[in-house]
Design a protein that fits this description.
heterodimer; A: about 230 residues; alpha+beta; Dna Ligase, domain 1; globular; B: Rossmann fold; 3 domains; 5-stranded parallel sheet
Chain lengths: ~230, ~475
């Protein structure tokens, strides 16, 4: 399946928001590194998925109706044993069934637990500027400090370089207390996202958040994509 | 003549019609006439007013079509509802450019204003006429000279290399008046007003080719076509400095967004990023806009970021260092020869390494001159910030330094902060500025100005890289 088909199939279903699995698929098609994602519909599948991916894992709610997963108890990190996976599965699914009965639950997502510096790469479409790309420092501080920079799409390699170096948190990316980013692979992702948007301008919003970056490379931990109606 | 763009008919016209000219001081049409005549516009002036034979001693015509000969530029000072008809007359007369002072268009609450502006724009486009405005104070070309604004005093501004594009009459007036005191010279001052068919991008393009303009400055509130400006600026990155002061720094996003990026995407942060992408320098105040323009019109580009700070008192030197650090400029040690020379000239009563406290040489103008000379020669130093605060005992130093610096070749930027009570060093400072050494009222502003030279150097290099690709 290529990206155009993927976009078409989302539109055909009358949605403008990609399912989590579709968002990841889109990135895979564009050779943007993403975490391996397994969908599990029950406890047993969840345990199998965790074993095949390898502990520790992260569990996320899989639902077309939940956009902000972590705000609503839809993300549980650092699960280290089968028992923890089973407990997490029960807790997460019950939680949603009880409190938000209108939400459709398609199961849970199991992913490898990643580490590294967290950054965010995103796209939005401004009413006057059109598509713009954002790079920002991630984690809990991003909303507080707003350490972010924008450029108009398309960007070039110089823009990508400058956006990263503009961060107040740049020293953290350069290497600080054992943490270090792979700046080159971050730049690569930014350039690919820029080209992706040029080729598919119907995408009006995109969040790659968080993107984990460490000496071994950069990998997208979570992604959301919204297309125009 | 850049006839292709038509803009030169606006800024260098051979004849100007003032449609709505008046001899009544209560009318803007009077003040426009005064601006043109007092401003010594060398071309022909045709006042248009059906009820007058002459205005300010100049023969007046009842209609534009009755004016004899060719009219390049029309300045329109009529009520808004008469404008569409007037544009048709301009087209018939072969007028190529219009400065439309008339207000009552897009800027008013009444929806009719927006409709009228649309109509006027379509007419102008149809006839191939460029309009500056509407809702503007006008334009001034100080080199022609032509003051086609309703403020005759704009003619008193010094002519120089700064082009100012502004979306606000109030801000333009204020910056012009500040600059009169500050000896900053302008090439063109343009009130863009509501921007019918001449927007920032068109003006940047025009001023890039304008031999009189060395630095393009902009006061901006917003534009409907920001991408046009960014594309134009990027295409010409580094050819001339573009400095922008964008008002409205609120971080609020205007997007109704579900996602993080959208909620963080305030207009101001996007402008900032887009300007950086385009090689446009951004500043945070009108003062900084003028300070930056002054340095960029006067100074040569520094070869690097190595700064020497020479101050006749310790404090000003210290605050310069603070700003330099913030702006990522370096204060390296002097080369051995320079250091040795400084130690010969300065007793060991103060700091003799960079930043140098020249305090102990207070009474000795020649020692101060010797230090400046040695540092100017130092190959490891790319720019100098020189601070001298007046004291009765060092009164002679300013003259010694201004005489010396004026005679030198000026490959290395020297930025001064000479400060004295009014009337004491005015002439020395003027002498410095006339020879390409800007003076600032405070040491912090001097240091910021130097930083802007370095920022533009980076942009220029980036522009060259793009050019090579």
């Amino acid at each position: 399946m290529d990206a155009s088909n993927l976009l078409q199939s989302v539109r055909k279903e009358g949605r403008n928001s990609f399912l989590y699995t579709e968002a990841k698929k889109l990135l895979e098609i564009w050779n943007i590194p993403v975490t391996e994602t397994k969908v599990a519909k029950n406890q047993k599948e969840a345990v199998q998925a965790a074993n095949s991916i390898g502990f520790p894992v992260v569990m996320k709610i899989f639902s077309p109706d939940v956009i902000h997963k972590s705000d609503s108890g839809g993300v549980i990190t650092d699960l280290r044993t089968e028992k923890e996976v089973i407990q997490a599965f029960d807790k997460m699914t019950e939680n949603y069934r009880k409190s938000k009965s209108s939400v459709r639950i398609d199961g849970v997502i199991i992913e490898k637990m990643l580490s590294g510096v967290e950054v965010i790469i995103g796209v939005t479409k401004d009413s006057q500027f059109g598509h713009v790309l954002m790079f920002g420092m991630g984690g809990v501080l991003v909303e507080l400090l707003k350490d972010i920079s924008f450029r108009l799409i398309p960007i070039d390699p110089v823009d990508a370089k400058e956006m990263i170096r503009e961060m107040k948190g740049y020293p953290l990316l350069e290497g600080f207390r054992g943490q270090k980013a792979s700046i080159e692979t971050l730049e690569n992702i930014m350039l690919k996202v820029s080209t992706l948007i040029v080729q598919h301008p119907e995408i009006i919003e995109m969040d790659l958040n968080p993107v984990f970056t460490s000496v071994s490379g950069s990998i997208v931990g979570d992604a959301r994509v919204i297309i125009s109606q | 003549m850049q006839t292709s763009s038509g803009m030169d008919f606006i800024f260098n016209p051979q004849s100007v019609a003032v449609i709505g000219a008046s001899d009544n001081q209560g009318k803007l049409g009077f003040h426009v006439m005064k601006s043109l005549t007092q401003g010594k516009y060398p071309g022909k002036i045709f006042p248009i007013n059906p009820g007058k034979d002459e205005i300010l001693g100049i023969k007046t015509y009842p209609t534009l079509l009755q004016a004899p000969g060719k009219v390049d530029l029309s300045v329109i000072v009529l009520p808004a509802e008469l404008v569409p008809k007037t544009i048709k007359e301009c087209a018939e007369k072969g007028v190529r450019g219009i400065v439309m002072i008339t207000a009552g268009f897009k800027e008013i609450e009444d929806k009719k204003g927006r409709q009228l502006q649309k109509e006027v724009t379509e007419l102008a486009n149809q006839f191939g006429i460029k309009i500056i405005g509407p809702n503007t104070f006008g334009i001034t070309n100080l080199h022609l000279p032509m003051n086609a604004s309703f403020t005759p005093e704009f003619s008193l501004i010094e002519k120089g290399g700064v082009g100012l594009l502004s979306q606000s009459g109030g801000m333009s007036h204020m910056m012009a008046f500040v600059s009169m005191k500050n000896q900053l010279g302008f090439s063109k001052i343009v009130g863009l007003g509501n921007r019918c068919n001449v927007d920032f991008a068109d003006m940047v393009d025009y001023l890039m080719d304008d031999p009189e303009t060395k630095v393009i400055t902009m006061y901006m509130e917003g534009t409907d076509q920001p991408r046009g400006l960014v594309d134009t600026a990027k295409k010409r990155m580094g050819q001339k400095p573009i400095v922008a002061y964008k008002a409205g720094s609120s971080h609020l996003s205007d997007q109704a967004s579900q996602l993080h990026t959208g909620s963080l995407a305030g207009k101001h942060v996007i402008y900032e990023g887009a300007f950086r992408q385009a090689g446009i320098l951004t500043v945070q105040s009108s003062e900084e806009l003028l300070d930056t323009a002054k340095a960029l019109t006067m100074c040569p580009s520094p070869e690097g970021i190595h700064v020497a700070v020479l101050s006749s008192q310790a404090g000003p030197g210290m605050v310069v260092c603070d700003v330099c650090e913030m702006e990522k400029l370096l204060l390296p040690p002097f080369s051995n020869g320079t250091q040795k020379r400084i130690e010969e000239l300065l007793p060991p009563l103060a700091i003799r390494i960079n930043p140098v406290d020249m305090g102990p040489a207070w009474y000795d103008s020649n020692a101060i001159k010797g230090i400046v000379e040695a540092v100017l020669e130092d190959k490891n130093i790319h720019a100098i910030i020189l601070c001298i605060m007046f004291a009765s005992a060092n009164r002679a130093s300013a003259r010694t330094l201004s005489d010396f610096l004026t005679r030198r070749n000026r490959k290395k930027p020297v930025i001064c902060c000479f400060s004295a009570p009014m009337g004491i060093w005015d002439e020395e400072i003027r002498q410095l500025e006339q020879s390409g050494i800007p003076n600032y009222a405070t040491p912090e502003r001097a240091a910021k100005a130097l930083a802007s030279l370095v920022r533009f150097k980076t942009i220029k290099e980036k522009g060259e890289t793009y050019g090579r690709q």
